[in-house]
# Entry
Amino acid sequence: MIIEGKAMKYGNDVNTDVMLPGKYLALTNPEELGKHAMEGIDSNFLQKVKELNIIVAGRNFGCGSSREHAPIALKYGGVRCVVANSFARIFYRNAINIGLPVFECVGISERIEEGDQLIIDLTAGVVQNLTRNERYSSMPMPEFILDLVNEGLVNYMLKRRKKN
# Structure
């Protein structure tokens, strides 16, 4: 799976409460959730994500509440992928389960600037920074995780169930 786009930068410990403030938890429509993505940390997010659609962040991205509303809001707000030094475990799983690609690459936040043009190859475990002509490597995503991202958890499980 290859994802192309431009980087939007955030720091360390970006928590789910700022990705989607609690007052929106009653919303169930993914498109409506997307309209409030990152509202607690970046009031210009929805304007920026039209051009900068890959989030690059520091360590512990997605800490805080275990709400799956946060990755849903990011996905439907226009984010194509999140690349971070590290992720909070529950956010990482929630993102994969709803089909938002997330990629861990230690030190990535120090190497990429906002606006850099990126190509992320999840299968090979590579981030190419076309703006700086640099390449960063990490662990490739296992095939079954890529299947989960592509299909979403429910469809993935239904497909597996039919095989058995």
Remarks:
- The chain has one domain: 2-163.
